[in-house]
Design brief:
The complex is a heterodimer of chains A (325) and B (409).
Chain A: H1 2-35, H2 42-64, H3 72-88, H4 94-116, H5 121-141, E1 158-159, E2 163-164, H6 168-190, H7 193-203, H8 205-210, H9 215-241, H10 251-264, H11 271-286, H12 293-307, H13 311-324
Antiparallel strand pairs in A: 1-2
Chain B: H1 2-22, H2 24-28, E1 35-42, H3 53-66, E2 70-71, E3 74-82, H4 87-100, E4 105-108, H5 112-125, E5 128-131, E6 148-150, H6 155-168, E7 173-179, H7 182-197, E8 201-208, H8 216-224, E9 229-233, H9 236-248, E10 258-261, H10 266-272, H11 274-277, E11 281-284, H12 292-305, H13 311-330, H14 335-344, E12 356-357, E13 363-364, E14 367-372, E15 385-391, H15 393-396, H16 400-403
Parallel strand pairs in B: 1-3, 1-4, 4-5, 5-6, 7-8, 7-9, 9-10
Antiparallel strand pairs in B: 2-3, 11-14, 12-13, 14-15
Helix pairs in contact in B: 1-14, 3-13, 4-5, 6-7, 13-14
Classes of the chains: A mainly alpha (325), B alpha/beta (409).
């Protein structure tokens, strides 16, 4: 008990310097993101950003509320289908399509959440997985999704009727704005009283209940928020790649986002971004080699879990803290 | 539209002709990036790795070697990547290949979802797409592209081949075991239509969910239907599982009923073994042991890979060879011009005799109805098929009017 309070007070003392260093890191990150498309291939970067937002949204749930959802593919892929369909068939503008996708995921998240948060741990994960599988089979069967062909040739269109998204740079900066919006929402959430309660629930739910918090409502809100942001990422991805297919709703996608979050560092703000960038880069660059991609990524995952459980960013933060302390 | 395409092609050919007469330098300037880059994009680690994978890359290299490694005095480079059966990865790689690496043609691309994505990218960038791996006939139907050519087979050819030819072989009544999603429904509907057209009857069908582990109830239903032919309108793991279990039920050994696989490759039969897959009937676009030319090429291929080629791998060779010949004839590697030239030239190689490419991009060639040999009939490894019937290309593949391709309207 004594060590625990000691740890908390040290964190409180160090939070001033940590916050300012976070600010510096954010500026550095922003500068890199602004300059990146001039060095790296824009479509690849957009993919990284979409997955980074996806992983951040997922991390909001597992890292800060302690809920391991194994059904996030349903929100990601579901939103992609809704965005692709509304933009291609209904002829909506891309921003409306993405918003509708996110709204769909939020609604779906509300339904999933209400059912799933009644249980904890592995049961929670299994319920989300089961519900997500139902969405997968609907995506496979419903006529508007076109089965395994997916919805292809989705037009990128004009953002707000002015910005031509067929230009790679315009598309990139649009995705960047979407990503930053999502990231700031998550950052604000985590650093708000609401976020503090979530962390309290993560650490000790009975104690949070005894303090008078209705933990179910907090968890549900976190779940819906995570689902909505995941949908935002999924819808954006559908516009970037101009397609929505079964890959995004398959349960493997739920696993992939767990992998990204754990690799980068669960419960850290930047961890999921780094993790997503790493996994997407590996998938892309290993594709041109003779190595079997899933095996390599699996091996990296095993090594990561065995050697540095906090993930890349988590490990760096821990090192910095221990050096200071 | 055809007229416009033809005039376009003629003009391009004329322009090329005059420059060719002009100077050699001008002609060399027609090759973008001073190198012909071929990108083989397929599944190299998953369930389609055996039917395409590295084998397709080897086959493409063989086509390049045959051309002496050079076209129009420019060297030819072959690169490969694994799309991991994810359309976004496939689309990303093809964009990056075309934008950054200067790839001129994308080859193979099994998995219809990925292939349709690549079709859109190549259409937008005006680069050539030679599809051997994917099955969907939409590539030359509603999703057809002026620079897309579909080579080895498609769902329509499989349906016609197996459906019509089986009825002609005496399999009058059919029962379908269908994978319960769009692909399965489509394959069943196409095949059923052909069966009826040829005078056969449909006794019924049963739909099994995707990735079913236990087909016994479905197979018993099929068995008790008394139909002459049980059509497997499924793919991949479902096909393998259903064939294995059908063999355990002794479905084919009874001699009364025949099992017809609608999407089966030589590599599947190799994996299943003859004991399990014997007497299965299927349609293929290529079999190595048919004539001397095919045997010679396939032996050469086998020396490099240790396996006999599937129709996808042999098709990759044939398509790339024809593509390179068209570059030579057109004097340029400009996508639309080369494909226009490819459509003018007949395809004559070990894969196809007098094959022709329709305006919608469909390469029309003969297909074959094959029966898998019994273990006692097989003379050795890879001696798997007995060709029962040749299906003329015009019968197997849809005509332009039937295809619904908008390019030609």
């Amino acid at each position: 008990m004594a060590t625990e309070t000691h740890g908390v007070s040290r964190e409180a003392v160090g939070s001033g310097t940590l916050a300012s260093s976070t600010g510096v890191w954010m500026l550095v990150g922003l500068a890199i993101l602004l300059a990146a498309p001039f060095v790296l291939y824009p479509v690849f970067l957009m993919k990284v950003l979409c997955f980074a937002l996806f992983a951040c949204a997922f991390n909001l749930l597992i890292g800060f509320a302690g809920l391991l959802s194994f059904g996030h593919a349903a929100f990601f892929g579901g939103a992609a289908y809704i965005t692709a369909h509304t933009v291609k068939v209904w002829g909506l503008s891309p921003e409306l399509g993405i918003l509708l996708g996110a709204a769909f995921s939020a609604t779906l998240g509300l339904v999933f959440g209400m059912l799933a948060i009644r249980r904890q741990g592995i049961y929670f994960a299994m319920i989300t997985l089961a519900l997500a599988q139902m969405i997968y089979f609907m995506a496979l069967q419903l006529p508007f999704t076109h089965g395994e062909d997916g919805i292809q040739a989705v037009p990128r269109g004009m953002l707000f009727g002015v910005i031509d998204l067929t230009q790679p740079l315009a598309m990139y900066y649009t995705v960047l704005v979407v990503f930053l919006f999502g990231f700031i929402v998550i950052w604000r959430t985590v650093h708000s009283p609401f976020g503090q309660v979530l962390k309290a629930i993560r650490e000790n739910e009975p104690r949070a209940i005894s303090l008078g918090y209705r933990t179910d409502q907090y968890k549900l809100l976190a779940f819906v928020l995570s689902a909505a942001l995941t949908g935002l990422a999924g819808g954006t991805k559908a516009i970037v790649f101009q397609l929505a297919t079964l890959t995004d709703v398959q349960w493997q996608m739920s696993g992939e986002v767990v992998l990204m979050t754990l690799l980068g560092g669960m419960g850290t703000l930047f961890g999921p971004v780094i993790g997503a960038a790493l996994v997407v880069t590996l998938e892309n660059y290993l594709a041109a080699t003779n190595l079997p991609v899933p095996v390599v990524i699996g091996t990296i995952f095993v090594v990561c879990v065995l050697l540095f459980r906090r993930g890349i960013v988590g490990e760096i933060i821990a090192r910095m803290r221990s050096r200071r302390g | 539209m055809i007229a416009r395409l033809l005039t376009g092609a003629a003009l391009a050919a004329l322009a090329v002709g005059t420059t060719a007469v002009g100077t050699a330098h001008a002609q060399q300037g027609k090759v973008s990036g001073d190198v012909i880059k071929i990108g083989v994009l397929n599944d190299r680690s998953g369930l389609y790795a055996d039917l395409g994978g590295e084998g397709s890359v080897v086959a493409v290299r063989m086509a390049v070697e045959e051309m002496g490694g050079k076209v129009l005095g420019k060297s030819i480079e072959v690169i490969a990547a694994d799309h991991q059966n994810k359309p976004d990865i496939g689309s990303n790689i093809s964009r990056e290949w075309i934008d950054r690496d200067g790839v001129d043609v994308i080859v193979d691309v099994p998995n219809s979802g990925v292939a349709l994505a690549v079709q859109e990218v190549t259409r937008e960038k005006k680069k050539v797409f030679l599809a051997e791996g994917p099955a969907t006939s939409r590539l030359t139907g509603d999703a057809c592209s002026p620079t897309g050519v579909h080579w080895a087979y498609d769902t329509r050819a499989l349906a016609v081949g197996t459906g019509r030819a089986m009825v002609q072989e005496g399999g009058k009544s059919w029962f379908f075991l269908t994978a319960d999603y769009a692909f399965g429904h489509q394959l069943e509907a196409d095949t059923a239509a052909e069966v009826k057209k040829a005078g056969g009857t449909i006794k019924g069908s049963v739909r099994a969910p995707l990735n079913t582990a236990d087909f016994s109830s479905f197979l018993l239903q099929a068995q008790s239907s008394g139909a002459d032919v049980i059509g497997l309108a499924n793919a991949g793991g479902d096909t393998i599982t259903s064939i294995k279990q059908a063999s355990e039920f002794g479905l084919m050994q009874g001699g009364k009923q025949k099992l017809a696989g609608l999407l089966i490759f030589l590599s599947d039969v190799h994996a299943l073994g003859l004991q399990v897959s014997q007497d299965l009937v299927l349609t293929t676009g290529f079999y190595w042991d048919m004539d001397n030319e095919k045997r010679a090429w396939s032996e050469k291929y086998k020396a490099k890979t240790g396996k006999m080629p599937t129709m996808v791998q042999a098709g990759s060779y044939s398509a790339v060879r024809h593509y390179l010949k068209a570059i030579e004839a057109a004097g340029t590697d400009d996508g639309p011009a080369v494909v226009a030239k490819m459509k003018e030239m007949p395809v004559n190689d070990m894969f196809a005799k007098n094959g022709k490419i329709l305006a919608n991009g469909r390469m029309v060639h003969d297909m074959y109805l094959a029966r898998v040999k019994k273990p006692s009939e097989s003379k050795g490894p890879w001696d798997y098929y007995e060709i029962i019937r040749t299906i003329p290309g015009d019968e197997a593949f849809a005509s332009i009017a039937e295809s619904g391709c908008k390019l030609t309207q």
